[in-house]
């Protein structure tokens, strides 16, 4: 067999020695840059998810606090501080709902949940304010009515739990999480 020999000039050899490693390095740099960008996106999504979960937990607790404050008010409205705590609890609810609504505004599913929750919160506030007025007039809370409102509170909390459940995969950066993020 005869061997063919490629005759390259010194300039061509220099180009091969410089260009081939340069192309390899640029390719490696591009891949690393892409991986870094993807990691940054996952980190930002996880941080956002953590903030949403924390705010959702705070809001759930505020709903429970408002319920307990009302029960304390209904039972012991003449005790010092009970009425103030009830009013403070009521005042925190729309603020917390609005804050969470702004946080989840980019997710249509969560935005719909929060729109509904905002309406339900307002209904609950109206009911509690009316119950306060009736209680001031000496009327006691009807047990069946209280159970119905407790179920209403559980429904609200379940909606908030749905948001938390949707956000959990985002903390791990899984493929389904990235799909949820873009819904």
Structural description of this entry:
With 183 residues, this protein is an all-alpha fold. It has helices at residues 10-76, 82-103, 108-136, 143-172, 175-181. Helix 1 packs antiparallel against helix 4 (143-172), helix 3 runs antiparallel to helix 4 (143-172) and helix 4 crosses helix 5. The model has no long low-confidence stretch (mean pLDDT 82).
Main sheet specs: none
What gap, in angstroms, lies between the N and C termini? 64 Å
Instruction: Give the low-pLDDT segments.
Output: none
Oligomerization:
single chain
> How would you spell out the order of helices and strands?
HHHHH
Topology, number of strands: 0
Q: How many helix segments?
A: 5
Radius of gyration: 30 Å
Tell me roughly what share of residues is in helical segments. Answer: over 70%
Beta-strand content estimate: under 5%
Q: What structural class do the secondary elements suggest?
A: mainly alpha
């Amino acid at each position: 067999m005869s061997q063919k020999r490629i005759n390259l000039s010194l300039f061509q050899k220099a180009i091969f020695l410089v260009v081939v490693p340069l192309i390899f390095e640029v390719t490696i740099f591009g891949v690393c840059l892409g991986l870094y960008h993807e990691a940054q996106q996952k980190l930002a999504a996880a941080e956002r998810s953590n903030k949403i979960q924390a705010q959702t937990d705070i809001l759930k607790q505020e709903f429970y606090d408002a319920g307990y404050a009302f029960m304390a008010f209904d039972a012991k409205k003449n005790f010092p501080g009970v009425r103030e705590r009830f009013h403070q609890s009521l005042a925190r609810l729309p603020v917390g709902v609005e804050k969470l609504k702004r946080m989840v505004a980019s997710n249509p599913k969560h935005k719909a949940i929060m729109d509904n929750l905002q309406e339900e919160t307002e209904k609950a506030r109206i009911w509690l304010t009316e119950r306060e007025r009736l209680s001031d007039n000496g009327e006691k809370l009807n047990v069946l009515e209280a159970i119905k409102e407790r179920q209403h509170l559980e429904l609200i909390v379940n909606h908030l739990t749905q948001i938390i459940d949707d956000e959990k995969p985002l903390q791990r950066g899984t493929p389904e999480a990235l799909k949820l993020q873009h819904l």
